[in-house]
Specification:
By secondary structure, the protein is mainly alpha-helical. Helices cover 43% and strands 10% of the residues. It has 14 helices and 10 strands. The strands form 4 sheets. Strands 1-3-2 form a 3-stranded antiparallel sheet, with helices on both faces. Strands 9-8-10 form a 3-stranded antiparallel sheet. Strands 4-5 form a two-stranded antiparallel ribbon. A hairpin with a 6-residue loop joins β2 and β3. The longest helix is centred in the first third of the chain and has 17 residues.
Length: 346
């Protein structure tokens, strides 16, 4: 194996960087055949994917980072929340990540994306159900601006260049598909859209600043702060899929795979913060409505549990004027739960 990855920047490094930019994200396993093909052409002798070591891969990542750093770009890595596969992504290290999308999307499409993110991390992220994901039907319904959206826009700056008219349902569906293709969203087997590892890496600071209410200095110190965006207690990375402490007021969250190593070193399977027994049946992510926790909480309303487990098919479109007479979707029930929580607290 040649040590070109450790020497001066050459054509093989340029070819690797071009391949990385074309994909936006890579894993070590995905990079092995790419590097093998590059090295075969560069060294004029066959290199097999299994000949590419992790040290070789890291050397090319390091060389690429040195080359792109003057352009405020960086290749960062994180672990996938469910598979724990290490994922490398090309991110912008300085500008607002949301505005970066403006280079390839219209202002009204960016405004639509913000409404989808608000739905993920506000509407469908309550004390009772931390879903932080959205079904295709729920996402498409956000295509037009509501009166509430318009009032919020009046309080804050509208996306530059936006006509404030929203987009069509067809444009919304296309936008969702594009966000998946570009590596910003992931779509689960049950049809939920959520932020990808790349998006969580690049949007980390923006998500915390936007959705976590740290309060004002003039507010009562004893008043509870609202933290919509939480970190895994074990790995300290953002968590949108995993497990939560059974005690609703406790902020402890753990990725599923992190629980295995974490509790292996503990004397008892208890929450590290409040010492409540850790059941493993209280979830963060879509399982908050499709898993056992969502099903249990939904038993007190007819049909809610079955709606949650069955999910809303992506291809079904309900007429908006019939929504009041039909079975509500689970997240609409969740909004009601949030109101109940406020009543209980008051």
């Amino acid at each position: 194996m040649s040590d070109d990855g450790d020497s001066q920047y050459n054509d093989s490094n340029r070819a690797f960087l071009q391949a990385f930019i074309a994909r936006s994200t890579l894993t070590y396993e995905e990079a092995k055949p790419i590097l093998a093909a590059i090295l075969t052409a560069h060294e004029r002798r066959e290199t097999l994917p299994e000949d590419v070591t992790e040290r070789d891969f890291n050397a090319y990542i390091s060389a690429a980072n040195s080359a792109i750093s003057p352009f405020d770009l960086e290749i960062r890595s994180t672990y996938h929340q469910t598979t724990r596969t290490r994922i490398y992504a090309l991110v912008n290290s300085t500008s607002d990540p949301i505005t970066q999308l403006a280079t390839s999307h219209t202002a009204d499409e960016i405004s639509y994306l913000k409404r989808v993110l608000d739905a993920m991390f506000e509407t469908y992220n309550t004390a009772r159900h931390e879903i932080m994901a959205i079904t295709p039907m729920q996402a498409v319904r956000l295509h037009k601006l509501t009166m509430e959206n318009r009032r919020e826009t009046q309080d804050g700056p509208m996306t530059q260049g936006s006509a404030g008219q929203g987009i069509t349902m067809m444009q919304a569906e296309k936008m969702l598909k594009t966000l998946v293709e570009e590596g910003w969203f992931e779509k689960s087997r049950k049809g939920f859209y959520s932020l990808s590892p790349r998006a969580l890496m690049e949007l980390r600071g923006w998500l915390i600043e936007t959705y976590n209410d740290f309060g004002d200095e003039d507010e009562d110190e004893d008043e509870e702060r609202v933290l919509k965006i939480k970190l895994c207690f074990a790995c300290k990375e953002l968590i949108t899929v995993g497990q939560r402490c059974p005690k609703r007021g406790c902020p402890c969250r753990l990725h599923d795979i992190c629980t295995q190593n974490f509790f292996r070193t503990q004397k008892a399977k208890k929450c590290p913060l409040c010492k409540t027994d850790w059941t493993g049946n209280d979830f963060v992510g879509e399982r908050a409505v499709t898993g056992s926790e969502g099903s249990t909480n939904g038993k007190r309303r007819s049909g809610v549990g079955s709606t949650a487990r069955g999910n809303v098919p992506a291809e079904v479109e309900e007429p908006e004027d019939a929504e009041e007479n039909e079975q509500p979707e689970e997240p609409e029930e969740i909004e009601e739960d949030a109101d109940e929580d406020e009543d209980e607290e008051s």
